[in-house]
Amino acid sequence: MMQIYRVAMREYLENVKTKGFWIGILLFPGMVWMLIELPQFLEERGIPTRHVVIIDRSEDLGEIARQRITLLNRKKVLTALQTHISKATAELREQMMEDQEIDTGQLLDQLEQGLEQLSRSDVEINPFSPNQLVKLGDLIPEQMLLNDAQWAQFKKLALSQLPADAPPFTEPDLRFREVPLIDDISLQNSNEEIEKQLKPYLRGDKLYKNGDEEIELFAMVIIPANALDPDQDLRFWSSNLADTDLLDTILAALSEEAREREYSRRGIASDVVAEVASLRVRSVNFDPNKGAGDEKVGIRDKIRQYAPIGFVYMLWVAIFSIAQMLLNNTIEEKSNRIIEVLLSSLSTNQLLMGKVLGVAAVGVTMQLAWIGSLIGILNLKAGPSATWVADLIAAVITPELLLGFVFYFLAGYFFYAFLFAGIGSICNTIKEAQNYMAPLMLLMMVPLATMTFIPSEPNGTIATTLSWIPFWTPFVMMNRMAASPPEFEIYGTALVLLVSVGLVFLVSARIFRIGVLRTGQPPKLLELLGWLKSRTP
Amino acid sequence: MSDPIELRNVTKNFGDFRAVDDVSFTVPVGTVCGFLGPNGAGKTTCIRMMLDILRPTSGSISILGTPRALDVRERIGYLPEEKGLYKKMTATAVIAYFAMLKGIAPAVAKKTARELLERYGLGDFQNHKCEALSKGMGQKVQVLASIAHDPDLVILDEPFSGLDPVNQGVMEEVIRDIRARGKTVLFSTHVMSHAERICERIIVIAAGRIVFDGSVERAKALLPTIVRVRGTGAEAALAGLTAVTEALPSSDGREGVLELRLREGADPQELLKIAFEQGVALEVFEVVDPNLHEVFVHLVGEKAREAAFR
């Protein structure tokens, strides 16, 4: 036992000292942080204003499209404004913890009143509470956004309500901006001519001139005269095929207009249509597995249904990365010929167990660090008063899930660790090991591929079948945990898994015993089978 | 008390290949025993079997009184033929780790490691990572690692290979120090001069079989004594004697010197006496003591050649 402990201890300390370990530990929270921060950052600052030329051959459709683009632009500013307000008032809202219900109708009245008061210099504005202020952004009606004066006033009103020490608000860049045709292209030209003339700009070969500034032209759209007729198409030119927001916006606006006109042509009031279309049939979901009186399915239950995906992914990454670690340093010990000294001090089984346990400790450390940093980041992002993180954790970390995670982590890890150590023992270089790893890697991809669809059919045929194959049992069963699979399957698959771990250990120990002393070419498969039969090394 | 190393009729096959063939020998306590043989003779296989890393196909082995070396692992020190260290560990840590695996308490192991490094001239490299050590230093560290737990039996596989002459001297010193404490040492080598200097006992193995087992003196006695003579009438007087098996021009290239190979047991003094009686005017009369190198070539020469060309 002492020997195993000392081997494990060395393995642990040496691995923990490596750069790779620390990179692994720090990379994960770093990535989570980026995943949270980056989209918002990109949304706000990352995308430059896109410039577009709109050729309008119709009477009024261009105006409709332009309105919708303005709306898009202002909504972007509105979102930024809202974020700014909630950041600036976070402390105030913190202090007034009472969760007052905000009456939206009343708040809208107050907003209109406020805007009116703002236009008159002789009246004080009725102040908004910080909570109301945050909510305002959601409530402001589209007409108000589209009205230049009202929009400007709204911004002024909202900003005037912020505490005195709030940082200044910088408006984000416009999402899209329309630019007129340059002087040397005439609107009188045919569409084909204009397209031909604009092509170099759209390709990015030439910079477009807007007054004095030089800009990149993002897109050109030609709205034909009878754009709303079914046989007429908009002509949209852009070399960026990924950013479809502009086209989507214009098409949505024009489609809406087309529907509107069709309704009135047929004598249907469009507001009636909107009202009818908004009718929804709702449901309350119940889960028969839950206790009486508590059967209603809430968001928490949904999270719980999908939470195992997170666990499976973590399980996979952990098992894979640390088993890889084991493979690497088995090969190191073997190619460095250290193994022979070790074997004069302990048996191969002790060595194998010590290594596997030591590396397992490394994996557990890594997991704990990851989970800890994840909870830390979520708490930091949500602010100290937010209870949703605690809710989320409470929802995810149920005793069954945790117990399952620990069990499947250990069993799965040992299963793959023994396999990898066995492979490591017959190879002198990582390169040689790759040959053996390839099929194993393919096997390990399966749970990743099935990870996302198993929760939707947790007790289906595929899930059940995969559960019984020890290569996948830990991942698939973890995946199914929330759906309370039949007890018979839980214990049955666990038993199969444990027996397989034992078998893999016996086989690997045999291979390890002979393999570690062997030099030169890795053995052929037949030769390996021979080793399994031989009694003595 | 039984001898530290006892092999009885040990045979080891790897598949169809017989690496060790019916080998028996014992090494008594307090002996420095050289284990000699050409490449591929089966030395390393024998050593691995002694350490229970490999099991013999047939025959029995007893190490420090037990058949399983692992049971007495804390009393054995082993330096394998292929030498390696953990690159990222310091010299002290490696020695301490190997000593700890042999059951030494961590604190004691660390202290011993430092003392050993100090004593054998590596005091300045205590905290250097092994990857920063030269090959020779690394090898010394490994030897120290194998004896840090003060074992009763030390088995060294090719301890001199890869060392420069100065460090070979240090290595010999290490071995003498071990013997001075009354411990038993078995080391393999194919360089005869080391064996000649520090061994009481040599075992020569070739193609898996023992071809010689005894003291260095006895090994040398295996070769015929050679007498070199020069003088008018020397050839006529001495070459035909029954004590002389062969008379050839000297291999050292000196003009007119004759090399006489004596029959086993013949006394060179007899030759001198006869020459005197016959009135030969001797200018040169030398008795050449064969060195172990020649003994070795004599013992394993043919087999080594066969092995080399197989």
Overview of the molecule:
The complex is a heterodimer of chains A (537) and B (310). Chain A has helices at 2-17, 19-46, 61-88, 90-95, 104-119, 130-139, 142-146, 148-160, 191-203, 245-265, 270-277, 299-335, 339-345, 348-382, 388-396, 399-426, 430-450, 461-467, 473-480, 487-515, 525-533; strands at residues 50-56, 176-178, 208-210, 213-215, 217-223, 235-238. With 537 residues, chain A is mainly alpha-helical. Chain A has two domains: 2-33 and 302-533, no CATH class; 48-242, no CATH class. A four-stranded mixed β-sheet of chain A has the order 2-1-5-6, with helices on both faces. A two-stranded antiparallel sheet of chain A has the order 3-4. In chain A, helix 3 (61-88) runs antiparallel to helix 6 (130-139), helix 12 (299-335) runs antiparallel to helix 19 and helix 16 packs antiparallel against helix 17 (430-450). The model of chain A has no long low-confidence stretch (mean pLDDT 81). By secondary structure, chain B is an alpha/beta fold. Helices cover 35% and strands 28% of the residues of chain B. Chain B has helices spanning 43-50, 91-101, 106-119, 135-147, 165-180, 192-198, 216-221, 234-238, 268-277, 292-309; strands spanning 5-14, 17-27, 32-36, 58-63, 76-79, 153-157, 184-189, 201-206, 209-215, 226-232, 244-249, 258-262, 281-288. A six-stranded mixed β-sheet of chain B has the order 5-6-7-3-8-9, with helices on both faces. In chain B, strands 11-12-10-13 form a four-stranded antiparallel β-sheet. A three-stranded antiparallel β-sheet of chain B has the order 2-1-4, covered by helices on one side. In chain B, strand 11 (244-249) and strand 12 form a beta hairpin. Chain B is elongated. The interface between A and B is medium-sized, with 26 and 30 residues.
